[in-house]
Backbone:
């Protein structure tokens, strides 16, 4: 199956899920930058790593064309918009923690679907496609955590990201 054989409605749904996750992860990355006391450059970099790192890793491993986050400006714009939202809005409290935990799991599932779908579109076998989906979903958070000196949350800590990512990638 090639990318031109995928139903346009499915493609637009995956695109919407992908960019929605970029904005939300930009906000989450920006919130971590705020907690760490980073300046605006730190906000932008941590938001970019959170929002785009997994997809950039996936695209580099697929090795077909330009990395989407660098060739399609809406990705960087949305990641940086998320950073600015977090810079000027102090998200905290129980409600934010619930949104953060559930949002992270939902985004992981959505990105696993988009990453798996992209790998399938490039004719990769099923298991590598599933792994590309899980990497898309979790890679940015792992990079962000390492850069900020934290243990990657996907290695434990009760973060519901890997299980929804694997489930959604397998279903896709």
Residues:
């Amino acid at each position: 199956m090639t990318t031109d054989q995928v139903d346009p409605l499915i493609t637009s749904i995956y695109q919407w899920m992908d960019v929605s996750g970029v904005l939300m992860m930009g906000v989450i990355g920006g919130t971590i930058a705020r907690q760490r006391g980073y300046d605006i450059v730190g906000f932008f970099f941590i938001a970019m790593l959170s929002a785009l790192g997994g997809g950039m890793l996936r695209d580099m491993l697929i090795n077909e064309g330009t990395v989407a986050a660098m060739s399609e400006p809406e990705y960087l714009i949305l990641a940086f918009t998320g950073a600015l939202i977090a810079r000027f809005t102090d998200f905290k409290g129980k409600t934010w923690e619930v949104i953060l935990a559930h949002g992270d799991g939902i985004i992981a599932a959505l990105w696993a679907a988009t990453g798996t779908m992209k790998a399938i579109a490039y004719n990769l076998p099923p298991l590598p496609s599933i792994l590309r989906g899980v990497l898309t979903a979790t890679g940015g958070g792992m990079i962000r955590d390492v850069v900020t000196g934290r243990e990657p949350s996907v290695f434990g800590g009760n973060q519901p990201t890997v299980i929804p990512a694997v489930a959604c990638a397998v279903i896709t």
